[in-house]
Amino acid sequence: MALNLILMGLPGAGKGTQAEFIVDKYHMPHISTGDMFRAAISNGTPLGLKAKSFTDKGNLVPDEVTNGIVKQRLAQKDTEPGFLLDGYPRTLDQADALADMTEQLHKPLSAVINIDVDPKILTKRLTARFICKNCGATYNKLYHMPKVDGTCDVCGHHEFYQRDDDKPEAVQNRLKVNVKMNTPLISYYKDRDLLFNVNGDQDIDKVWQDVDKILSSL
Ligand code: ADP
Ligand code: AMP
User: Fold this and answer.
1) Broadest EC class (predicted)?
2) Fold classified for 3-118+171-217
3) Residue 119 and which of 37, 90, 128, 180 are 20 to 30 A apart at CA?
């Protein structure tokens, strides 16, 4: 049976980190709208030009743009065995649009995993995040250094970068924007009996154990 999943959580909650484990074990495409926007911006595509002014400031890209790229992505064949949405939906309008898409495509959602972390600790996590330039694996100066200093655990490359929107000036606004939408979205999926909460304020491995327990029970 296809596992059609949403990974929810505030910026810095650990979605990308857990997505690496999920994809490794359950083999489905990882669809991160944030990654799609960053790729479009770095390639200078029309989508990137539309998105940049919003992502730069930590604001949400308009729903019609975001819904459009997800709709195209979910229609691709590689989502047939399942998919993992990360960072989408982030508004109720997006949640409704996704419900229409999954119905039209006959790909009903299996579960929504909400990684729950107190927003107070997220500023510290986000400003310490760094990412492998080659494969996108995520690390943290305070909580998750590569096993060999300066070498990516996943692909062995040596170059890393910090996201522009992880600089302190953008982080505060991102958190504010996302905290506002988080509670109604959680209620939306709770009301539909799809929501599973995981305590994200634990070691990365422990969070993964909890996520995996849920996924293997579906
Ligand atoms: P998101 O995709 O939700 O924005 P990430 O997975 O990129 O979050 O994690 C944000 C930062 O916090 C990264 O630097 C990551 O290494 C680190 N991190 C992820 N999970 C944990 C955790 N459970 N405890 C401490 N740091 C974490
Ligand atoms: P993320 O990588 O998920 O932290 O997303 C980075 C940025 O991309 C966000 O701050 C938004 O500007 C934009 N973005 C990502 N996902 C969405 C979404 N579902 N709706 C609107 N904007 C989004």
Assistant:
1) transferase
2) Rossmann fold (3.40.50)
3) 37
